[in-house]
Amino acid sequence: MFAKINHFIDRYLIQLFCASLLVIALVVVGWRHVVIKVDTGHLAVLYRPFSGGVDLGLVLGEGLHLVAPWNTVTDYDAHILTHSLKMEVMTSDLLKSTATISFQYQINEGTLPLLHKYIGPKYLEKVIVPTMLTAARSRFGKYPADKAFTADVSALSQEIAGTADRLLVENINPPGLSSLRFVRVPSAEVSQMTFPPDYEKAIDEKLIQSAIAQSYQYKIQAAKSEAERLEIEGEGLRKYQQLVQPGLTDNFLRLKGIQATQALAESSNSKVVVFGSAGTSGLPLILGDNPTKK
Fold it and tell me: Strand, helix or coil at 5?
């Protein structure tokens, strides 16, 4: 038996070698079509060309998956993604400007096969961008320029996100289906505004005048506070003088002078003391004694 096997191998060695090479080549080439890896944060949809097309009941999650080599797997990023959109808008007072809006979006895992079947991987350009344009322009049209681009910009951004998210559910539906959410827009932000030159100049002048007016208010308030402080200080000094004036007799002042002279004499520092007309008291000139009676 072994002799027959050896004879067969010797006779068909080249054919067996070529067949082995062919099988190895098919495995190497076909491996990436049979074993599919779905990365972290991604989802995938399976297309079966011989059994109904897109598999509407299957979403491939993260990890490795075995599929038939004739089937096609399409990968979708399921992270929360960010996109910026530059557009022309017009406010309720007919001011035409250019706005840059940054928004977040994310696919819905439950309806991903339908998204792939009816819209496809370019859903951002086909669905989300037109919807954001509609939502932004409709909301900008509700605000005058002085509010849309200043104090109410945060509220405006929230309204744009809410309107876009609602329109994506109401207006994007496959035939025979309704109220399906393919993607969501959780947030939006008006990140940059470009105004006509005349309007920008007017805004700058308004801000400058507003800053000047506010500085005047601060100066006026500071002056009022200083005046009140001086008034309170003067009233305190007046009351103090009224309180101590009855006690400022000649004898009291003479006692204070003696105490000051004694403290000066006890000091270890060298000094020069100038006495004036001290009379019998011998006090320094600074006390101003009565003149000597003749």
Answer: helix
